[in-house]
Amino acid sequence: MGRTADYSRETCSVAAALAVVGDPWTLLILRDAFAGVRRFDDWRQRLGVARNVLAARLKTLVAQGVLETRLYSEHPPRKDYVLTAKGRDLRPVLLSLKAWGDRHVYGAGAEPVDFVHDCGAVLAPKLVCDACGEAVTGADLTLRRRPAAKVGEMLAQSALRPS
Q: CA–CA separation, 47 vs 117, rounded Å?
């Protein structure tokens, strides 16, 4: 499950996002971060991922401002990994990915877990237009290109920018 794709020549927000979170281990690390996992050894135990792979993915997530570290022990030095605002903005992505997996991998009624909203209903995420509140179907969208920097340039800038 290693990273093999190079998106640096792309001018695409999807490619830019994949350069940060497109690795399967990274998505599982984020899934667990949303479930409250904060410590390296807890991820190792839950995921069974190699130490070097986990360390590399956490380093990238910190460098990109998705996670930040907080020292919880000075002797020996130990740190927690905590979602930043930028990281928390990935919640809808993971909820949508989970919903897709529920529907197309597990099938109706076989979902391993549900998220229940405060209103008591099982969450069924949907995309709505922020301006009018209507559900987005895809057929109602038009692509409009804007000038943009290449993914490599955007990643370098976002790693330097505070979240």
A: 27
